[in-house]
Amino acid sequence: MNLPRPARRSWWLEEALAAEPGPPCPPLDRDTETDVVILGGGYTGMWTAHFLKERHPGTDVVLLERDICGGGPSGRNGGFCNGFWEELDVLVHALGPGGALETCRVAERSIGEIGRWCERHGVDAWYSRNGHMGVATSPAQDGLWHALVEEATRLRVEWLEELSTEEVRARCDSPVFRAGVFAPRAATLQPARLARGLRRVIAEQGVRIYERTAVRRFRQGPPAEAATERGRVRAAYGVLATGAWSSRMRAPVASRTTTIS
Fold it and tell me: What is the pTM of this model?
């Protein structure tokens, strides 16, 4: 049997890079000034850059990424595009019914918007709005979704459908699958293809992307200043889009960051 070689990166990212590597973005090698500097080349950083340029085309934006864009969690997640409805019970506890419903409704809009964005920009992210299914594979997992479904029913939210074992097996006949829950309005996609597509689009918009550029120090300003090994970026505004990496920064950033594992 010929087994595939171990992935050097996530399979998602390796597939996306093989399909469309895109032109390389150089590391920062000199001091520069800009309107907005963004730290992090994942979804948060690239969507921020995209919408800044879309709404204010004359804004000069610099994006700094220590690896390559999409090289972190944005290029290796599960590819589920589902809003926050599946966290409804948690959100109700944190925000109350009104706040939870508004959060979920706003997040749900992004599902369709992502699909339309991919179509508009020619990004083949394997977007499919055919829903997704969660299943139990052991007795310990049976019914873990009951509290969520009960909360959704109480708030008259039609998002989840409970499935029997037979209904699950009719969709995917795995011998380990038991009962489950189905979200028919959710979507799935290839996460790294979305990230790399975003990279292409923001480069076309004129965002200055510097990859392989680790930020050693960041000052919130004003002006904001990001110091790297070979250059500094001074900007009127700075955006931290580093996810859990932000917790490694010193105060005041670390004291305002929560990392959930």
Answer: 0.88
